[in-house]
């Protein structure tokens, strides 16, 4: 693992690393914020998954999360949103597919299947690496934004017991039914709708339920709300499956990190209560 930087913040440290990933067969970069408590004892971890066009740096630079993470004693791990350094055909042509848009799935279709395996990377490889490298406990939670909110919900729902809690900002809750998800799933997963369903939070919760309350924040002035996000699908599925959901519709907020930074403290406190309770 190559250390790219260490930066002091709120008495803790933000580290960035590059490592060779067995999931993606590429180098991957991730960031980890270690709160000051990590100098004395192991701390729980929140995994943050970002959205389309992002790297690890959108959250670390724009979410304003580290003051609260330092207060709560929470580490935060931010992976990238896709493999990098490849030149697959069409990979860099659009903002909502390919680089910056791995959709947290394990692709089955060539040419993506050899590298675009972000589900395995985030759900399996990265936590294993984090837990053996840093002063963290095996208590973990997961959250994310938009495509990353989709990733957080899916990884949480497919791995019962692995995460103490899940939350999301502006998540793509029903990717099989909206243009962003359909484009990604068609290209990464092919035509098999049963396979699509294993990466669709609304269908997963209908099928499997969940055993902890879920927190979602959504801005009502988000320009993607009607076409891509449609949290009402997830809300209805949670009600049918008897899963407690807090869906905060926030008046006037858009899709940006200004929205995330306005409510990130609530999400960190929500996770800390479960991780440390
Ligand atoms: N208008 C955006 C659409 C993509 C977008 O809004 N991405 C969200 C996640 S879905 C984001 O977090 N962008 C980076 C940022 O705001 O820092 C673009 O084309 O770059």
TrEMBL record:
InterPro entries linked: AB_hydrolase_fold, Esterase-like, S-formylglutathione_hydrol
GO molecular function term, any single one: carboxylic ester hydrolase activity
GO CC entries: cytosol
Active site annotation, chain numbering: 146, 222, 255
UniProt entry tagged with the keyword Hydrolase: yes
Keywords, alphabetical: Hydrolase, Serine esterase
Gene3D superfamilies in the record: alpha/beta hydrolase
Enzyme class: hydrolase
EC numbers on record: 3.1.2.12
GO biological process, one term: formaldehyde catabolic process
Recorded catalytic activity of this chain's protein: S-formylglutathione + H2O = formate + glutathione + H(+)
Function of the molecule: Serine hydrolase involved in the detoxification of formaldehyde.
Family per similarity comment: Belongs to the esterase D family.
NCBIfam families listed in its UniProt record: fghA_ester_D
Protein name from the UniProt record: S-formylglutathione hydrolase
The organism of origin for this protein: Endozoicomonas montiporae
Top-level taxonomy: Bacteria, Pseudomonadati, Pseudomonadota, Gammaproteobacteria, Oceanospirillales
């Amino acid at each position: 693992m190559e250390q790219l930087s260490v930066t002091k913040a709120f008495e803790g440290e933000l580290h960035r690393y590059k490592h060779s990933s067995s999931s993606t067969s590429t180098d991957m970069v991730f960031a980890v914020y270690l709160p000051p408590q990590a100098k004395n004892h192991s701390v729980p971890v929140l995994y943050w998954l970002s959205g389309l066009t992002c790297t690890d740096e959108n959250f670390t630079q724009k979410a304003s999360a580290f003051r609260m993470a330092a207060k709560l004693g929470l580490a935060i791990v931010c992976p990238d949103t896709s493999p990098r350094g490849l030149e697959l055909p069409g990979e860099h042509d659009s903002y909502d597919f390919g680089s910056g848009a791995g959709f947290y799935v394990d692709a089955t279709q060539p040419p993506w299947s050899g590298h675009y395996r972000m589900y395995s990377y985030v759900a399996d490889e990265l936590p294993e690496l984090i837990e053996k490298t840093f002063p963290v406990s095996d208590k973990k939670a997961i959250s994310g934004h938009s495509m990353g909110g989709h990733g957080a919900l899916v990884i949480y729902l497919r791995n019962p017991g692995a995460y103490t809690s899940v939350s999301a900002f502006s998540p793509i809750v029903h990717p099989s039914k909206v243009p962003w998800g359909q484009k990604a799933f068609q290209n990464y997963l092919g035509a098999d709708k049963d396979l699509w369903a294993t990466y669709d939070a609304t269908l997963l919760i209908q099928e499997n339920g969940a055993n902890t309350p879920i927190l979602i924040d959504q801005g009502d002035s988000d320009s993607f709300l009607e076409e891509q996000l449609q949290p009402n699908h997830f809300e209805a599925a949670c009600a049918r499956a008897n899963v407690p959901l807090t869906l905060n519709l926030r008046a006037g907020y858009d899709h940006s990190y200004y929205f995330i930074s306005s409510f990130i403290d609530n999400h960190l406190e929500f996770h800390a209560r479960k991780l440390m309770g």
